[in-house]
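Incident log, support desk, overnight shift.

02:14 A customer reports that sequence design results differ from what the structure should imply. Their input is reproduced verbatim below. On-call engineer (initials T.W.) acknowledged and began investigating.
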């Protein structure tokens, strides 16, 4: 409703000002509401009635009827109807009328119940991509971004519920890289060890929980099936193919990795 939309817009703007996020760069509204699941509930009710009728007539006649068959499919219909209705309820409660705003210094996730503001220079994000297949044919990819805010224990999760995920996902990742890489470089120059989950870097080395190599021996970073490997002149570092989805701010790490590798070993493979 118009009044509710204005209220959401007001709260989004208040959040942006409070976090000093700057001017709006792009806006992505919430997508369409999931189906209500009415068809599934109607199917469920019909199957229950059919099972009851079949069971009653079978009890009177002493013959085998289809009550078990109808009952089994009624369970399946109930599960589908419940899942669809739950998604619709969550949409109405949290997403309806909301939007994702990308701004100069951060973003606002405009949930219906509570906007959340994130700054590019402090947030940590993990990205999960899942490719879906049917009969061996790829049918699509779902994208999930999990944001960890400084001082907050519970992360904020968004996905393709906001339209344009193929646009806003890379834009957010690049904005975080642009904001955080200069900060991390200054920390490295000051002698700090900077961690990215189980990966870490210093001005002289890159490492994992159980292995490390000086930058002069580092040759490349490879990604295969959603997992990353670090390579040195002595072979892959002991990382056990760490999934990218488990590495916070992976693209910041990747950018720094290439910067430091080329600075110390410019002839190594890219």
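02:41 Re-run completed on a clean worker. Output:
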């Amino acid at each position: 409703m118009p009044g509710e939309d204005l209220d959401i817009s007001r709260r989004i703007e208040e959040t942006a000002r409070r976090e000093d996020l700057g001017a709006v760069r792009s806006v992505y509204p919430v997508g369409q509401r999931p189906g209500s699941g009415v068809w599934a509930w109607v199917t469920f009710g019909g199957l229950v009635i059919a099972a009851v009728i079949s069971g009653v007539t079978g009890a009177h006649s002493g013959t085998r009827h289809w009550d078990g068959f109808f009952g089994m499919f009624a369970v399946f219909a109930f599960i589908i109807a419940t899942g669809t209705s739950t998604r619709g309820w969550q949409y109405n409660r949290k997403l309806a009328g909301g939007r994702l705003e990308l701004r100069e210094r951060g973003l606002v996730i405009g949930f219906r119940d509570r906007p959340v503001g994130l700054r590019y220079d402090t947030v940590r994000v993990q990205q999960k991509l899942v490719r879906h297949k049917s009969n061996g044919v790829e049918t699509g990819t779902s994208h999930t971004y999990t944001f960890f805010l400084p001082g907050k224990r519970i992360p904020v999760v968004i996905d393709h519920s906001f339209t344009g995920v193929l646009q806003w996902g890379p834009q957010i990742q690049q904005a975080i890289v642009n904001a955080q890489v200069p900060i991390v470089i200054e920390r490295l120059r000051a002698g700090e060890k900077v961690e990215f989950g189980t990966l870490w870097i210093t001005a002289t080395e890159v490492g994992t929980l159980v292995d490390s190599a000086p930058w002069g021996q580092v040759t490349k970073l490879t990604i295969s099936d959603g997992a990353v490997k670090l390579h040195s002149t002595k072979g892959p570092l002991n990382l056990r193919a760490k999934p990218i989805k488990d590495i916070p701010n992976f693209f910041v790490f990747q950018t720094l990795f290439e910067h430091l590798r080329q600075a110390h070993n410019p002839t190594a493979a890219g």
